Amino acid sequence: MTLLNCLLAAWYGMPFISPNNVLVSAINGTGVVIESIYVLIFLIYAPKKEKGKILGLLLLILAIFTTVALVSILAFRGHDNLKKLFCGIAATLFSIIMYASPLSVMRLVIKTKSVEYMPFLLSLFVFLCGTSWLIYGLIGKDMFIYIPNGFGCLLGTMQLCIYAIYRNKKGEIKKLPSAEMGLAKSNYFQNGQS
């Protein structure tokens, strides 16, 4: 989801979509490169079953981005305000989805009373990233930057509060599935009960 968010935000920041947002394109373009390297390394070393899933998601992400880019160029030719609105809404929607992805992990932390699956540094940087982009969006009066990052700041704050509440508590977890990248499964076993 982060790759799609970076792709759409970098596209939104392009001068022919949203003038005076080159910083948004530069930073999110860097994010695209970093995420692409991460996905490539994962695809090289992951088990075959996982490669298929991630490759499918990668194709979906590229299809969504290509659709947004082509629609913005072809359908809104000569309509700069509509082009910016369309790309801004797409970037905002997927940015909010990206920031909301750890909600399942937050639920897991509350149920298990353990922060084992919610790393502190990840929560801290979600908060810092959301806050810094929120401030940038407010200064530039760009709602397509401050709205999704306001959600990011709020959700980062919630993660830090949950971390503070449960950091010293040890839940009695016997078996818990992987919670990588904010996608935790709701089936867990605590105290021998399902």
TrEMBL record:
A GO BP term here is: protein homooligomerization
Which keywords does this Swiss-Prot/TrEMBL entry list? Answer: Membrane, Repeat, Sugar transport, Transmembrane, Transmembrane helix, Transport
Q: What is its main location?
A: membrane
Q: How does it sit in the membrane?
A: Multi-pass membrane protein
One cellular component GO annotation, for this chain's record?
membrane
**A molecular function (GO) term:** sugar transmembrane transporter activity
Record localization: Endomembrane system
Its transmembrane ranges are: 22-45, 57-76, 88-110, 117-139, 145-166
KW Transcription regulation (keyword) present: no
Can you tell me which family this protein belongs to? Belongs to the SWEET sugar transporter family.
Would you tell me the protein name for this molecule?
Bidirectional sugar transporter SWEET
Q: What is the originating organism of this protein?
A: Erythranthe guttata (Yellow monkey flower)
